[in-house]
Amino acid sequence: MGCILSTKTDTRRRRCHDQPTTTTTTTTTTSSAASVVAVGTSPVTITRSPGDPLEWPPWLLAFAGKALAGLTPRRADSFKKLSKIGSGTYSNVYKAIEVETGRVVAIKKVRFEAEEKESIRFMAREIELLRRLGDHPNIVKFEGVVVSRVSQALYLVFEYMEHDLAGLAAAPGTNFSEPQIKCYMKQLFTGLEHCHSHGVLHRDIKGSNLLINNEGILKIADFGLAASFDPAGKQAMTSRVVTLWYRAPELLLGSTRYGVGIDLWSAGCILAELLTGKPILPGRTEVEQLHRIFKLCGSPSDKYWKKWKLPHATIVKPQQPYERSIADIFKEYPSSSVSLIDKLLSIDPLDRGTAADALKSDFFTTKPHACEPSSLPKYPPSKEMDAKLREEKFRRQKELDKSGNKRGTFRKQRAPHYRQSKAVPVPEANAELPVNLHRQMFHVNGTSKSEKFPPPHQDGGVGVKLDNLNGVSLSFVANDASFTSEDFEGKMGKSRKVSHDSHNLMKSLMLDIARSGRLHMKGNPKELKVSSEAK
Ligand SMILES: Nc1ncnc2c1ncn2[C@@H]1O[C@H](COP(=O)(O)OP(=O)(O)OP(=O)(O)O)[C@@H](O)[C@H]1O
């Protein structure tokens, strides 16, 4: 057990005072303890208590001043780190103890270079949105920011949550009852309703981001990809968000003006997954993902294509229409759940309704009703167990390596990279995060790359991306119907070759799929170019 950054005891340990974020210019204060920091065009006042030894570093204030306004940095030595409990794309998450209170918390270590402006803005967005959402029973509680004086590291402090839905669903012997599924889904929709009514789209709803505590309370976590949205749909956003298996068709088709429907689609996938016990749309590439969606949900109508005019509409359009098969596929499940799945998995996002609509649906209003969270089973502490298993594996590996060394077969010792157990190996297809593609391509060690913020607005989806196939015409053929594409050279804007490796990877991925019979390639794969430009 060690202190996060230093073991020095500070008698003036401070708690975080999270006041409402000031979005407007505050220059009226006359207190000498206040500093005015220019953030873009609007200066923001950061209030500091006289004599407070901790100040936000200038590099952080310059780009995240608005997100941090009214927030007091917490001292690193107010927490003691216990163990690593998870790692994500740009962070490692630790279980820690708040020294003053003895309370267990989760701290998310975010590390980046001070000059990475985009990365800092990315993190600032997460803080800003978490603060906007405030205290809600179904949103993970954000408790402040710890700054390191010695390294350029930041820690976001959260309440500690013992489990996540993906982990629980994957535990051997798990078989959720209908009231239990309703209980989790009710909490998910309540949390989503709160996000959406506060103008926040989560954009990465999946089981591993739904944390659950020992009281059975489910909280939506990981707002790293979340964004403010304009309900009128006037503001363009990147379509390269949401983990592939939970990604709505309009995103796969390149929509940049989307709304709450994308989170509702993901929620529909989760509901179906909880009922069936496995992910329902486990595509390996964006092309395959769309194909799976169309097979389950039916291919979009002409009205849909005309109404939405989606950028990739001409690339993958089923030649023969698929019939919608949700009712048939889920026929053995309760009809109120199938109706809700059917609504949430509507191809047209406007037909999915809202989280509030879902809460009013028959699924929740008919018997058996959702159970109380407190009546849910008490699960064993999975994170600690996982951590122990990890340590044990590492210890055994070390011993193996030692004996290997004796025989003269030296292998480099390295701590194992660990990711929290998931129900299934979800492809990390948060396409907004290029580090994911890099990881998939080169199996990058998590501790070196995953602690970095990825530059927002860049693309890194796994597999064949629909806008990366320049000059190669696709047609993917299923057993019963085929999808064709027009030759879209010139339609997708300028492409450039990014690297020999990624070029070859894309080619080999396409060839792989072609060999598997899912994708037919016309044109010359040698001409394939890979674009790294954001859309
Ligand atoms: N408050 C918390 N309590 C307990 N565990 C947590 C908490 N927050 C995060 N974790 C664990 O850490 C993991 C990574 O956290 P998080 O998803 O926030 O990071 P990320 O870098 O955005 O990850 P990802 O790449 O999965 O999007 C989670 O899957 C979860 O297991």
TrEMBL record:
Organism of derivation: Rhynchospora breviuscula
PANTHER family noted in UniProt: CELL DIVISION PROTEIN KINASE, PROTEIN KINASE DOMAIN-CONTAINING PROTEIN
InterPro entries: CDK, Kinase-like_dom_sf, Prot_kinase_dom, Protein_kinase_ATP_BS, Ser/Thr_kinase_AS
Positions of the UniProt region annotated as Disordered: 1-29, 397-421, 516-535
Family indicated by similarity: Belongs to the protein kinase superfamily. CMGC Ser/Thr protein kinase family. CDC2/CDKX subfamily.
E.C. code: 2.7.11.23
Protein name from the UniProt record: [RNA-polymerase]-subunit kinase
GO MF entries: ATP binding; RNA polymerase II CTD heptapeptide repeat kinase activity
Enzyme class of the recorded protein, top EC level: transferase
Segments of skewed composition (Basic and acidic residues): 524-535
Keyword list, A-Z: ATP-binding, Kinase, Nucleotide-binding, Serine/threonine-protein kinase, Transferase
Biased composition (Basic residues): 408-420
Reaction(s) this enzyme catalyzes, per UniProt: [DNA-directed RNA polymerase] + ATP = phospho-[DNA-directed RNA polymerase] + ADP + H(+)
Annotated ATP binding sites: K109
One Gene Ontology term from the biological process aspect of the record: positive regulation of transcription elongation by RNA polymerase II
Domain Protein kinase: 79-364
Gene Ontology cellular-component annotations: cyclin-dependent protein kinase holoenzyme complex; nucleus
